[in-house]
Amino acid sequence: MKKVININFQGRVIPIEENAFDILNKYIESLRKHFANEEGRDEIINDIEGRIAELFGETLKKGSTCVTEDDVNSVIDSMGRPEDFDDETTNANSQQSNFQYAQEQQGYNNSNGQKKMFRDEDNKILGGVCSGLANYFGIDPVVIRILFVIFFGVMFIPYIIFWVAVPSSASQVIGSKRKRLFRDPDDKIIAGVCSGIGHYFGIAVWIPRLLFLLPFISFIFRYWDWWSFPSLLKISFSPSAVLVYIILWMILPEAKTTSEKLEMKGEKVDLNNIKNTIQSDIESFAKRAETFGETIKEKGTEFGNTINEKSKQFATEASSVARKKSKGIGDIILLLVKIFVYFIVGCVLIAVVAALLGLGITTTGLLPAKKYIIHDGWQNYFTWGTLLFFVWVPVVGVVVFIIRRIARLKNNSNLIRYTFSALWVIGWICLINLIMLLSKDFKYHNNAYEEPIQLENAHVQKLHVKAFSTRKYYQENNWFKIEPFNFIDEDSITVGNISLRIIQSHTDSFAVKMVKLSNGNSKKQADELSSNINFKASQIDSSLYLDRGIVITPKEKFRNQHVIITIAVPVGKKIYIEKNTGWQWSKRVSIGFINTHDIEWYDSEGKAYYWNYNTEYLMTEKGLEKIKKNSKENDDDDDNDDIDNVQNNWSEKHEKFLNNLTEKSANWKNKQLSYSTKLSISNHYTIPVNNNNVCNKEKPINLNNLLFLRFAL
Question: Residue 521's pLDDT is what?
Fold first, then answer.
C-alpha cells in the first residue's frame, strides 16, 4: 500500500503517490540548479512545470486514479534530464524505446485484449487515418491511401470523422512528439488562423493566406447574373471563405504557452526546446523594446525641443499665437485633404484591379468565338499576344505584387518590375497591330438592296410574329454572354444582329421586306458575305416565323452581318411580337469609337414606329397604337406603359428634329438635281425601292455607326 497525496501543481489539483512526489521535487530542483545562470530562468522553469502538469492531466484522463512513480519517470524521460541536454541520440532512443514499450505492453489492445485503432502520427501524410487503418488491418498504408483517393467523393466525410473521433497513437506515450492546430499569435495579420494552418501543414504562411483571398475573385464573375464564365475557373465560395475563417477563429485555440507553440510547429516539447523558445522570445522582445525605447526617446527629445522653441517664440512674440493657431488649422485641413486623397487613390486602385480582372476574364471568355472573328496568321498571333501580354500581364503583375506584399518579399523587385513592364510594352505592340489588321476587314460594306418575303396570306387581320424554335445544342450559359454573339454551336456561332421595323402599309395587306448588310476588306467580299446570310422567314396561318439570328461559320468570319426586317401593317389591322426573340436592336462592331445605342438609322425620314414585346398594336391613320387590355388578361404589358410614354415622347421629338433637318437640307437637295448619278459615298447605302408599301424613293442609309462592339458588362 502506497500513500497518495493531493498537490496543487500549476493550478491543477493532482493526486500523486508520495514517492512519486519526491522524485518530482528532486527533478525540479535539478532544473533550477541547471538554469540558475540562464537568461529567463524563471520563465523556463514555469513553462516546464506547466508542461509536466499537462502530461499529468493526460495521464489522469486515461483512467488512472493517481500519478505513480512510473508516470513521473515517463514524464521525466519525455522532457529530458539536464545532464543529457546535449545527447540528442539518447533522447531519441529513449522516446523510441518508450513508444515500443507502450506498443508491446498495449499492442494496440485494450484491457480485454481486443485490438484498438489509432491514427499513426509517425507515418502520417495528413491526419494519420490511412496509416492507422493499415496498422489495424495489417496491410500496406499505400493501398488504403489509393482507395481513399479513388473514392474521394465518398470517403472525404468518413476521413474527417475518423480524424476527429479516432485517438492519436501519440496519446499512448506520455510526452511523445505530436502536431496540433493552433492560431499563431506571433505571425498574425487578423487572428493568426492562416499562419497556424501553415505551421500545421508545413507550408509557407502566404499560401493559406492566398487561398483565403483567392475566392473573392468570384465577385467579379458573379456580380452580373446574366454573365457566366466556365465552371472550371469560377470560384463561387467567397462568402463561405469568410465564414470558414470566422469559424476557425472561434474554435481554434491560440498558442499561448511555450509547449503549445512547439506543438503547433510539430516540435518535441522537451527542456532544450522550451529553453530555446523562451530565450528566443526574450531576445525578440528585447529588440522590440529597445527599438520602441529608442523611438520614444527620439520622439521625447523632439517633443522637448519643439516645446522649448515654441515657448521661446511665445515669450518673444505674442502675436505669433494667432499665426500658430492658423497654422494648426491649416495642418488639420491638410491632413483631412491627404486622407481624402488617399481614400480616392485607394478606391481607384481597387477599381483598376477589378477592371483588369474583369478585362482578363472577358477576353478569355471570348476564346470560343475567336475562330469566328480572327483569321489565321498574323491576326491569330497578335490576338494571343494581346491576350497574354496586354491583358493578363497586368493582372498577374497585380497578383504578384499582392502576394509579395503579404509574404513580405523584397528581393529582385527591380527585375520583376522591368520584366512586367517589357512584357506589357509587347502587349501594346500586339494590340495596335491587331486593331490595324481588323480595321481593314471592316473597312468596306456591301451594295445593299431590299428583298421581298412572300406571305401565304397577306390579308390576315392580325399578324403574330414569332421566332423559330430550335433543338440544337448551344453553349450559351457555359462560357460567356457577350453581344452580339448569342449562341455558340460546335461548328457555328449565332449573331443576334436582327432589326425589326414596323411601318404603315399603303394597301390593305401586310408586306415584309428584308435587307442584308455586311462589311469586308473589299466590296466584293462584303457582297459575298451578305449573300451568304441564310435568314429564314415563313408564314403559317396568321403567324410569321423568323430566325432568331444569323449563323456564322469559321470560314465566313463575323464581319457585322446584319439583317433588317421591315413589316408594313395596313390601317385597321393588328400586329403582335412575341418576347424572347432577341430582335429590335442591333449590335455592330466599331473600330475606333463606341456607341451605346442604335436608333432607327435605316429610316431616315422617321416612318418606323417603336414597339414593345408581348404587346398588341393596331395600325391607325395616325400611326401604331397600343391596344389596352382588360384586367383579366395577362398584365405583363402593363409594366411597359411608362416606357411607351417615354418612347412616344422621344419619337415626337425625333420626328420634329428630322423635319427641321429636312427643311434645312432642302436647298442642298435642289442643288443636287442636276446630278444624274446615284448617291454613292463610302459611308452610305443606296437602296432602290419599287414597292410603295415600304418607300417610294431611294434613301441613303448613314453607316457612321455601322461598326460597334458592346460588351455586356
Answer: 86
| Grid cell at residue 267 | 516540435
Quote the CA–CA distance of 33 and 592 in Å, as a whole number: 85
Is the pLDDT reported for residue 428 higher than 80? yes
- Per residue in 597-655, pLDDT (tens digit) is 333 445 544 577 778 877 888 888 888 888 876 544 444 444 455 555 555 565 566 56
- Which range, of 62-66, 111-115, 133-137, averages the lowest pLDDT? 111-115
- What angle, 0 to 180 degrees and rounded to 10, lies between the N-to-C axes of helices 271-316 and 41-61? 130
Q: Let me know if 153 is exposed, middle or buried by CB neighbors in 10 A (0-12, 13-18, 19+).
A: exposed
DSSP assignment string, 61-115: HTT-SSB-HHHHHHHHHHH--GGGTT-HHHHHHHHHHHHHHHHHHHTTB-TTS-B
Identify whether residues 428 and 345 lie together within a single domain: yes
Show which of 441, 460, 490 is a domain's final residue: 441
Domain boundary among 441, 459, 478: 441
> What does the alpha-carbon distance between residue 560 and residue 373 come to, in Å, rounded to a whole number?
10
Q: Does residue 341 sit within a domain?
A: yes
- 416 and 456 co-located in one domain: no
Q: Which grid cell is 19?
A: 514517492
**Domain total for the chain?**
2
pLDDT of residue 581: 60
Domain of residue 432: give its range.
317-358+375-441
What confidence tier does 271 reach under pLDDT thresholds 50, 70, 90? low
Query: Strands 493-495, 562-569: parallel, antiparallel or unpaired by DSSP?
Result: unpaired
Residues 448, 417 share a domain = no
**Cα(22)–Cα(18) distance, integer angstroms:** 6
Residues 511 and 448 occupy one common structural domain: yes
Sign of the torsion angle spanned by Cα atoms 517, 575, 689, 467: positive
SS3 324: helix
Judged by average pLDDT, the poorest of 10-14, 49-53, 87-91, 682-686 is 682-686
Residue pair 294/300 in contact by the 8 Å Cβ criterion: no
DSSP 367: G
Put simply, whether the predicted model's pTM sits higher than 0.85 gets the answer no
Distances (CA, A) of 122 to 96, 147, 169, 179, 323: 11, 21, 8, 11, 74
- Is 28:14 a contact under the CB 8 Å cutoff? no
pLDDT, tens only, 627-643 = 876 544 444 444 455 55
Residue 122 is classified by DSSP as S
In a domain? residue 497: yes
pLDDT range class, residue 338, cuts 50, 70, 90: confident
707 in Cβ contact with 519 (< 8 Å): yes
